Inverse folding.
């Protein structure tokens, strides 16, 4: 009887020959010897056949393992994958991932064609292996040290997208959770140590899948650590990780897992500190070329601002988490705080029941001096902001306008200046102290519609005055004189409006002082300034 050996039956035949003890000691040129020669001279020299032989060997465990057939198969596959691409005779069939034009424009194409061999030519073929065999093959390839970490990362990414349901998204079939978790844990274990071998977006997808599959804490923390090392590459959508049983009750469950993002930010900041310590205080740049450390921090701060805007829409998000995330990047110098202002405004909009003290805490996160002109205009009209913030915004807008026109800073009432510097004056008696405390609380209250209208009018008048001043530089002497008069009127109007708002807030305190409102605001004596202030404001965090 004639038996034709091929990649599909050679392992079964070899195991049968071993069982029948068809060794050379029994007869020279026996079946075992012939099969071994066939494997080494033919099948193990073929890339496709080696993979087929490896796949068929699994059904014949443990004998195929005892005969070291699996070990030889793995070594053959790893050796072929590590061959220099210039020596690879490679062809590929139609693949849905390839461009349509690439496969169909050539009239002579009949399903197989050749082209320049890519470095990851073997990646998709290994996706046919089961996870246990895949792990052993990839370990053998890594141990050879020939294939680059970038190609290893591409191989793991291709396998994850092929084997994990939903291409790494939070879709885990309940009947396959254990299998899913095994694949996920293996992929994380095989990731090269080098930073940047896989994208941050892919790592975040793995983290989402690990949280969804309830992987062990060590796997999740490994992903958190890797993501933190290259967080500047992430996007806001990548960081929006759906929460899984974060709240004990359905009504308190948050939309997103904010705590895991907080851990990622901690890893990012710790990586920067460790980098300095390990190099004896000398900063050694280990990030990819073209991205400086400060640039990475700026990118992360921008990402966090966008992330805060999204999570602020969650009605169950605690204020402490929002402030905690924001303060983690408060030390990163940002040229503008518009993104942070948008996040704060979104949180105030979605949480209308927030108290005065909490409203004050969240508004302290932003620096009014770093708001753009458009953001300032929006803030002056924002009825959700405390009056203190609205006045601060208008004050700095005036300072900026005065600086751009080349004039001095507007001479605003002392109480307004104290408001922006964090000092609220002093008290002569217990009655005045209580009144000042109440006034301070009133400034932390939300501005009324009438006050906002007055401030909006002031800002519009200020902008108009600046335009007049700017245009007067190229006009006649009369025009310059008219511009100066217009500007002075604007400053006087500013003083009156601020004094009016302050006097309305102060109420009885102004009457008890024995002087008019303007004197009580702008004419505080030196003795008063030396007294202990009733309440100190906190400077804005830059």
């Amino acid at each position: 009887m004639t038996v034709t050996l091929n990649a599909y039956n050679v392992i079964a035949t070899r195991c049968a020959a071993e069982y029948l003890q068809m060794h050379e000691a029994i007869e020279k040129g026996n079946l075992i010897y012939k099969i071994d020669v066939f494997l080494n001279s033919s099948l193990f020299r073929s890339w496709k056949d080696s993979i087929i032989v490896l796949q068929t060997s699994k059904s014949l465990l443990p004998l195929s393992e005892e005969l070291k057939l699996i070990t030889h198969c793995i070594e053959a596959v790893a050796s072929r994958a590590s061959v220099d691409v210039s020596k690879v005779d490679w062809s590929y069939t139609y693949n849905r991932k390839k461009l349509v034009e690439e496969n169909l424009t050539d009239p002579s194409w009949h399903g197989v064609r050749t082209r320049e061999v890519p470095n990851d030519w073997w990646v998709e073929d290994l996706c046919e292996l089961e996870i246990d065999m895949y792990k052993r093959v990839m370990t053998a390839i890594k141990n050879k040290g020939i294939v680059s970490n970038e190609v290893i990362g591409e191989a793991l990414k291709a396998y994850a997208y092929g084997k994990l349901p939903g291409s790494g998204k939070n879709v885990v079939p309940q009947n396959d959770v254990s299998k899913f978790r095994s694949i996920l844990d293996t992929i994380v274990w095989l990731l090269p140590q080098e930073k940047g071998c896989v994208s941050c977006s892919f790592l975040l997808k793995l983290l989402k899948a690990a949280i969804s599959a309830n992987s062990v804490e060590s796997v999740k923390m490994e992903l958190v650590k890797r993501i933190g090392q290259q967080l500047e590459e992430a996007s806001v959508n990548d960081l929006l990780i759906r929460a899984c049983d974060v709240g004990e009750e359905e009504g308190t469950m948050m939309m997103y897992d904010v705590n895991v993002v907080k851990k990622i930010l901690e890893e990012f900041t710790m990586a920067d500190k460790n980098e300095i310590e390990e190099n004896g205080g000398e900063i050694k740049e280990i990030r990819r070329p073209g991205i400086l450390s400060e640039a990475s921090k700026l990118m992360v701060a921008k990402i966090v601002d966008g992330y805060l805007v999204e999570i602020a829409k969650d009605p169950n998000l605690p204020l402490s988490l929002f402030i905690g995330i924001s303060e983690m990047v408060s030390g990163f110098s940002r040229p503008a705080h518009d993104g942070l202002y948008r996040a704060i405004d979104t949180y105030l909009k979605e949480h209308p029941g927030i108290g005065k003290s909490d409203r004050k805490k969240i508004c302290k996160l932003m620096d009014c001096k770093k708001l753009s002109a458009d953001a300032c205009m929006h803030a002056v009209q924002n009825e959700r902001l405390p009056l203190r913030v609205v006045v601060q915004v208008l004050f700095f807008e005036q300072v900026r306008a005065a600086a751009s026109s080349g004039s001095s800073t507007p001479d605003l009432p002392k109480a307004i200046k104290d408001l922006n510097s964090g000092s609220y004056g002093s008290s002569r008696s217990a009655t005045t102290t209580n009144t000042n405390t109440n006034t301070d609380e009133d400034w932390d209250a939300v501005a009324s519609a009438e006050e906002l209208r007055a401030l909006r009018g002031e800002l519009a008048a200020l902008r108009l005055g600046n335009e007049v001043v700017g245009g007067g530089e190229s006009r006649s002497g009369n025009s310059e004189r008219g511009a100066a008069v217009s500007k002075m009127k604007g400053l006087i109007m500013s003083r009156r409006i601020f004094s009016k708002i302050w006097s309305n807030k102060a109420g009885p305190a102004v009457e008890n002082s024995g002087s008019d409102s303007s004197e009580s605001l702008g004419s505080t004596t030196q003795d008063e300034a030396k007294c202990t202030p009733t309440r100190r404001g906190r400077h804005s965090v830059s």
The beta strands are 92-93, 112-113. The mean pLDDT is 75.
